[in-house]
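Lab meeting, item 3. Inverse folding demo.
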């Protein structure tokens, strides 16, 4: 929902910048719901963050809690 809100108030760059900072503090990311990846704009913004996260040794998993 935050992504949708960010599109309305033009804060999408800030949202992804905050996410990039938060990803620096963790070494594992679990994506519980991946249906939002069908949104091309969202995917194009998220994928570089995931690539960077993985490049520094972070693990991305997909699945349930």
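The presenter then showed the designed sequence:
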């Amino acid at each position: 929902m935050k992504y949708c809100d960010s599109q309305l108030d033009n804060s999408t760059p800030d949202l992804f910048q905050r996410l990039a900072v938060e990803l620096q503090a963790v070494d594992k990311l679990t994506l519980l719901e991946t249906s939002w990846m069908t949104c091309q704009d969202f995917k194009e913004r998220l994928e570089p963050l995931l690539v960077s996260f993985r490049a520094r040794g972070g693990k991305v998993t997909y699945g349930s809690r």
